[in-house]
Specification:
The protein is of the alpha/beta class. The chain has eleven helices and nine strands.
Length: about 325
C-alpha cells in the first residue's frame, strides 16, 4: 500500500479532534485507587531455561480487580546490584510466550519485565493470564468488550494492569526503581503512553507505532483490524456511536500523552494502515514534554522500523537510564 494518510509536513502539525472527558483524571484516579486496595503481592519464581547469559523469573502480581497477571522478569546473569528496568507491553493478540524470546534488554545490561496481556495470546506468543471479567455483546476481538461504558471497557483493565506491572517490576530488589522505562509496539505502544500518563516518575518511554491513539480519526480512516472492530460493532448496533465515542475518549493515547513528562522516543511508518501515522502524530504532537523525538519509516507498514528501531532504542535509552 502506498502513502494514504497526510503528507509528512501536515503530519508534523496535525492535532486530534478527540475531546477529553471532563472527569478524565478523576476516572483514572478512582480506577487506580480501587485496584491499589488489593495488595500487589508480586512474586518472582526462578525458572531454569538453559540460558547461561540471563536469569529468568516467572512473575505474578495483582492487576485490575486483584486479578493475577503473569509476566517474565529477565536479568543479566549473576547481577548483584540494582539495574535499570525496561517494562514491556505486548502487541494485540499476543501473550508473553517463552522467556528466550525476550533477551534484547537483558543483553543490553537492563532488567526486562514483560507483562502478559490478560485474555490474549491466542494469536501469537501464547498467554497465561485469563481475563475473568465478561462483557455484553461484542464484535470478535477485544476492542468492543464493554465499549458502551468506561467502567466496563476491556482497556480499563489492561491499562491498569500496565501501571501495576511498573509497581511489580520496581518491587524486585535488583530493580533500580528510579531508572524505569516503559516500551511496547502497537497495542503495547498504546499501553506505554497510557501508563506514562498515569505514572509521573518514569525515566523514559519508547512507544513504537502506538495503537489506541486518536480514536475519532482512526476508526473512520482505516478499515484494518483492530480499529475496524469498532465499525463492525456499530454497523450492528446502529445509533450507539455517540456512546461508544464517549467511552473511547477515556482511553485515547492523545489525552494520556498530554500528561506525560518523561523523555520519549516514538516511531511511526507512513504506509501503516493498522495504526495510521496521523494517529501516532496526534499523540506525539500532544506530548507533554519537549524532550521527545520520532523516527519516521517512510516506506514501511505496521512492522515500522522493526530491528532498525530497536537499534535506535539501544543508542537512545542507555543515556536516559544512566546512573
Amino acid at each position: 500500500m502506498a502513502l494514504f494518510d497526510l503528507d509528512l509536513d501536515r503530519l508534523r502539525g496535525y492535532r486530534s479532534a478527540s475531546r477529553e472527558p471532563a472527569d478524565f483524571d478523576g476516572f483514572w484516579a478512582r480506577t487506580l485507587a480501587e485496584t491499589r486496595a488489593h495488595a500487589l503481592d508480586a512474586r518472582f519464581e526462578p525458572v531454569e531455561t538453559g540460558l547461561a547469559a540471563v536469569d529468568v523469573f516467572d512473575v505474578a502480581f495483582a492487576g485490575f480487580g486483584g486479578h493475577r497477571v503473569k509476566g517474565w522478569f529477565v536479568l543479566p546473569a549473576g547481577v548483584r546490584e540494582p539495574v535499570p528496568v525496561v517494562v514491556e507491553y505486548l502487541g494485540y493478540g499476543g501473550g508473553r510466550g517463552l522467556p528466550h524470546t525476550h533477551l534484547l534488554w537483558a543483553a543490553a545490561g537492563f532488567g526486562h519485565f514483560v507483562m502478559d496481556t490478560r485474555g490474549q495470546g491466542g494469536a501469537w506468543g501464547g498467554g497465561d493470564t485469563p481475563d475473568p471479567v465478561g462483557s455484553a455483546s461484542a464484535f470478535p476481538g477485544f476492542m468492543t468488550r464493554g465499549v458502551e461504558s468506561p467502567d466496563d471497557y476491556y482497556y480499563r483493565r489492561l491499562i491498569t494492569d500496565g501501571v501495576r506491572a511498573v509497581e511489580a517490576a520496581r518491587s524486585h530488589p535488583l530493580a533500580d526503581a528510579a531508572r524505569t522505562a516503559v516500551t511496547g509496539t502497537s497495542q503495547g505502544g498504546g499501553v506505554t503512553l497510557a501508563v506514562a500518563g498515569l505514572v509521573d516518575d518514569l525515566a523514559a518511554i519508547a512507544p513504537n507505532v502506538p495503537f489506541l491513539c486518536d480514536f475519532p480519526r482512526a476508526i473512520t480512516l482505516t478499515d484494518r483490524p483492530p480499529y475496524r472492530e469498532i465499525g463492525e460493532y456499530l454497523s450492528t448496533y446502529r445509533g450507539r456511536t455517540h456512546r461508544v465515542r464517549e467511552t473511547l475518549a477515556y482511553f485515547d493515547g492523545v489525552h494520556f500523552a498530554a500528561r506525560c513528562r518523561a523523555p520519549a522516543l516514538f516511531s511511526t511508518a507512513l504506509e501503516d494502515q493498522t495504526c495510521p501515522p496521523s494517529t501516532v502524530f496526534a499523540a506525539f504532537n500532544a506530548y507533554g514534554s519537549d524532550d521527545k523525538s520520532i523516527e519516521v519509516y517512510d516506506f514501511n507498514g505496521h512492522e515500522g522500523g522493526g530491528p532498525y528501531q530497536e537499534a535506535v532504542q539501544l543508542r537512545w535509552l542507555p543515556a536516559r537510564l544512566a546512573a
